[in-house]
Amino acid sequence: MTLDIRRSSASVWGSLSGLRNAQVVSKYIDTTTCIGCKACEVACQEWNDLGPVVTHQVGSYQTLPTLHAEYWNLIRFDEREFDGGLAWLMRKDQCMHCDEPGCLEACPAPGAIVQYANGIVDVNPDQCIGCKYCETGCPFDVPRFSQTTGKMAKCTLCVDRVAVGLEPACIKACPTGCLHFGTKDDMVELARGRVNQLKGLGFAQAAVYDPKGVNGTSVITVLAHGDHPEWYHLPADPHVPYGVKLWKKIIRPLGAIAIFGAVLGAFAHYTKFGPKVAKGSSSDTDTNAPRA
Amino acid sequence: MDSAITVARDREDVVVGSEIVRHRLYSRLVHWSVAVTFLIATLTGMPVWTPVFGWMAYLFGGMTVARLLHPWAGIAFFIAVVIQFFEWISDMRLEPWEKDWIGPRLTRYMRYEEDDPRTGKYNGGQKLYFWAVALGALGLLLSGLLMWFPTAFPRWLTELAYIIHDITFICFAVSLVFHIYLGTAAEPGTFGSMTRGTVTRAWARLHHPGWYREVTGEEPRPAKR
Prior knowledge:
The structure holds two protein chains of two kinds. By secondary structure, chain A is α+β, with helices and mostly antiparallel strands. In chain A, 26% of the residues lie in helices and 18% in strands.
């Protein structure tokens, strides 16, 4: 596994550094076999050496209302009534590692968010300036600002483990096999197989969640109720916010050109018209400021 | 009799020998406060805006310092603009005959063809710039606050704030380039009004004949053809 960088935040001109072809990796999350044991939460805290976080009672087994700068992996518990049934839904929530990451797109600090060639999107705290732009850019509401460090924090997909050939801590800890890790292609195949199985079991709406709006994610999720991703707190059609795209891709370059253009324009004007002096006078002492 | 620079400490629109006091000391200090706070906000904001201007951050010790300074410099800029607004507003009412400064008259002005004997202490372009600065500063402040505390507001509002902050700044920066150019190279004698506070009679006749008449009680000489 190589750690070549595919994309880096705030680079003026591309940042692809890899000559090698790294395979894109992915987590596989099967929400239908998750039992909500939170082993993955504990494994994440332990491996990433994150401190204890004060829990909130939200009326379910859920540890916290949302992700937290020191809690990157959260099982969301939801109850939904549907046509003649009740679904008790558990989904492992964390960074989705988008192929087209909105956080990276929005980030103004060079190199603070990088996407490795293997698809992992990581925050580099050393470069992070704590501006929170990534929070605005993320369609999944994942990055969190840490009051302790003044930097952003989120799941790294255990890049430090993956880089040396280990699977992420959460995957390692899962007791039911609802979590898997491998190449994106393998995980998609696994997910499709599971969806077919679910359809055979009567879940006609079962689907793989690998949203096209962000060109797919490196966390693919099997949903029994695939027609209702919002039941799982997943956006139906996530994409990099249009505001961020307009700002970064159009206004920013045009603005830089306009400012340089204004400077050039002033020079051009001076070259053509020179200073404004009274008609008939030849910029003599009359028009210049007197000496004190 | 006091020299012009002494008079210019606390009085303006008065003739002292061959000079006319245009901006009293307080007025100049307020203007330079606006200029300096804007410069700091610009140099700390532009590297965050686009990496093309990333080098500016090193003037302050890097991106983190720039990001920390920027909102406070912005607040200081806004306060300075508010003070300047009340210092100058009484002279900034746009006369009906000045309305066409948006358009043809601005072009004529830049071609040095604008020659209206009614032009008072400030011409229509300066008045428009004054109002644009006030409006722009408000736009930068409001959008800047949204960007400073993005999680406190709905997502669409923060997205909109980025766009407003950018467009407002671009307009600011482009017009500021011309503001500085006109105040220095293009119109000799103007810069002194912001340093010493004074201008020459000839300068006043050329650029602000209406003001010249008001201050000196003399008719500005008709321009020689």
